[in-house]
Inverse folding.
């Protein structure tokens, strides 16, 4: 039976996001590392590699699929209550010790991270998404920037079928990658992990690339939401949170910011879990910085009304939530507050169609996907 490394090395095609250099080297532009890759070697992500002066990239598989409420991504200002059919591949360009998707993201670095890939085509993924009743197809679980070519192949099929498309990403992008994605991505969530470059170094990244990605995404007109996982002792100081939220508000006060609770996971087991009080302090700082839509996540029912969406003009509660469940929806068909007529920034359906699921679940037809490692 082939190893995971052997399978991943075979399920590839030539990439689009690279240039050829001298001596059979290539430079990859999928993520902010912009790796110069010698012949016979992979990039930092471990899944894009140079063979004979050609960059090969992941193709024709997924590391897993799941049907999620769109609120889990989290997108709070895009089609509330809809189902997001989520897929991912393997690998990541960062090494976060608290990664909640480490089984897929670290599968080629950590021998304990095993996620047997499933062989699939873009057409099959879209058919399955439609069969589940999904409205949105989202590339997530690993870092989607490093598998952009595959995501775009899937998204082209999704768009043709009338689906919305989204990226859930660490935001370590490049101008080349973002222009490549621009025609085919509707929604983009960036995980802004810190506002301190030293902390990004600890995760094997640079903050500058992520901040530039956020600016570019907003300028491109993609719907953008930002998430910060609040980790005690790592990124939760008042000064850091003030700098982060002032940066976002300086781009646009309408960017939703989700500050979410950390819990011990993967290799990060020493900090205490985030408390409701921690989240309330962070959201207060975000609002003082000028952000109009600030949410507290991962502690449902313990953060007052910070799961709800309010009209920033008159204060009317427009969308009431408990965790991933939409309890009340009061937007007009034009996406406005019914009380004062203020437009709520976001992407809205003409009417609320109800909610397919308030919890994540595996696609009912997942058994039709073949586990590649199970083949002889």
């Amino acid at each position: 039976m082939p190893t995971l490394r052997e399978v991943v090395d075979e399920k590839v095609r030539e990439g689009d996001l690279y240039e050829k250099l001298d001596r059979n080297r290539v430079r990859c532009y999928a993520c902010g590392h912009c790796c110069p890759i010698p012949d016979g070697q992979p990039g930092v992500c471990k899944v894009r590699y140079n063979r004979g002066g050609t960059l090969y990239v992941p193709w024709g598989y997924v590391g897993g699929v799941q049907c999620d409420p769109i609120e889990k991504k989290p997108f709070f200002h895009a089609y509330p209550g809809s189902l997001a059919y989520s897929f991912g591949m393997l690998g990541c360009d960062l090494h976060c010790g608290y990664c909640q998707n480490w089984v897929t993201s670290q599968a080629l670095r950590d021998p304990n991270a095993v996620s047997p890939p499933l062989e699939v085509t873009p057409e099959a993924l879209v058919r399955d998404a439609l069969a589940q009743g999904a409205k949105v197809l989202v590339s997530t679980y690993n870092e989607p920037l490093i598998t952009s070519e595959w995501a775009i192949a899937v998204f082209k099929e999704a768009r043709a079928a009338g689906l919305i498309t989204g990226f859930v990403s660490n935001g370590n992008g490049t101008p080349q990658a973002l222009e490549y994605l621009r025609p085919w991505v509707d929604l983009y969530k960036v995980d802004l992990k810190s506002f301190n470059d030293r902390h990004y170094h600890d995760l094997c990244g640079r903050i500058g690339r992520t901040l530039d990605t956020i600016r570019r995404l907003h300028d491109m007109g993609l719907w953008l939401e930002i998430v910060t996982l609040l980790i005690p002792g790592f990124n939760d100081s008042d000064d850091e949170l003030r700098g982060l939220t002032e940066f976002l508000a300086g781009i646009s006060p309408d960017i939703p910011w989700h500050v979410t609770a950390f819990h011990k996971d993967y290799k990060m087991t020493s900090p205490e879990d985030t408390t409701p009080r921690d989240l309330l302090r962070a959201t207060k700082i975000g609002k003082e910085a000028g952000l109009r839509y600030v949410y507290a996540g991962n502690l449902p029912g313990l953060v007052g009304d910070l799961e709800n969406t309010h009209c920033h003009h008159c204060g009317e509660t427009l969308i009431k939530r408990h965790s991933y469940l939409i309890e009340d929806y009061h937007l007009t068909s034009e996406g406005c507050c019914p009380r004062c007529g203020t437009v709520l920034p976001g992407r809205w359906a003409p009417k609320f169609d109800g909610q397919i699921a308030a919890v994540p679940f595996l696609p009912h037809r997942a058994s039709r996907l073949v586990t590649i490692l199970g083949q002889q």
Notes: The chain has a mean pLDDT of 91. Residues 4-58 form one domain. The chain has two domains: 4-58, 61-302.
